[in-house]
Every structure is written in C-alpha cells, then in structure tokens.
Amino acid sequence: MTAKPVVPPQQALRDVDDAIAHYLQEDAPEAALGFIAALERAYAHLGRQPATGSPRWAHELGLPGLRAWPLTRSPYLVFHVERAGHVDVWRVLHTHRDIAAWMQAPDEPA
C-alpha cells in the first residue's frame, strides 16, 4: 500500500512554528529537535496508517473523522482527518491547551 501524503495547512504549520519557538525560547534546542523528529515520525506513520489515532475529539467536537495522534515523548497531539487522496492535518496542539477552544476556525478567537 502506498502512503498518502500528509498535508499540514497554514494553521498546523503555525502550530509547529510556535512549538519550536517555545522550545528555543526556553533554551531547549534538543527538545526542539526531538519535537521535529517526533513530528516527522508521526507524519510518516499517519501517511501509512491514516485511520489510527483517538476519535475522542471527533465525538466531543462533533467533527466526524477527526483523530488525534500523540507525538512520542512530546506533549503534543496531531489532529488529522483522512481524505481520499491525502491526510489533512488540522492542528498540532499541546495536550495542556484548551483543545476545544483551539480547534475553532483560525479566524475565530480562541
């Protein structure tokens, strides 16, 4: 089976940039590199097995098909939806965030 491309839109890319900036601001470049490596592994996994991850937030937020995949050794979740030709990454959020508020549309206040 061929892996599906994993497509992070602008909001997910901003989430990743914010996480890396936070680690660097905390003078933790090793943690930033670990986060990047874990994210790359997660994207590779989701491309191969896009139906994996917890559907908890799909039920709580009323977003059919939404799944959350945890990053290894990092307190972040990759929120994604499988599409016909790709995996759509909606957000990459810290587990201590108010997930419901942060899953609003990007133009809405969180």
* Portion of residues within helices: 40-55%
The stretches of 5 or more residues where confidence is low (pLDDT under 50) are: 106-110
Could you tell me the radius of gyration in angstroms? Answer: 14 Å
Distance separating the two termini: 39 Å
Overall 3D geometry?
globular
Question: How is this structure best described in words?
Answer:
The protein is an alpha+beta fold and 110 residues long. It has a four-stranded mixed β-sheet with strand order 1-4-3-2. Helix 1 packs antiparallel against helix 2. It is globular. The N and C termini lie far apart (39 Å).
Sequence-ordered SSE layout with sheet pairings:
Elements: E1 6-7, H1 10-25, H2 29-48, H3 56-61, E2 67-70, E3 76-82, E4 87-94, H4 99-102
Parallel strand pairs: 1-4
Antiparallel strand pairs: 2-3, 3-4
Features:
alpha+beta, 42% helix, 4 helices, four-stranded mixed beta sheet, 110 residues, disordered C terminus, 4 strands, single chain
Question: Summary?
Answer:
With about 110 residues, the protein is an alpha+beta fold. Helix content is about 40%, strand content about 20%. The longest helix has 20 residues, at about 30-50.
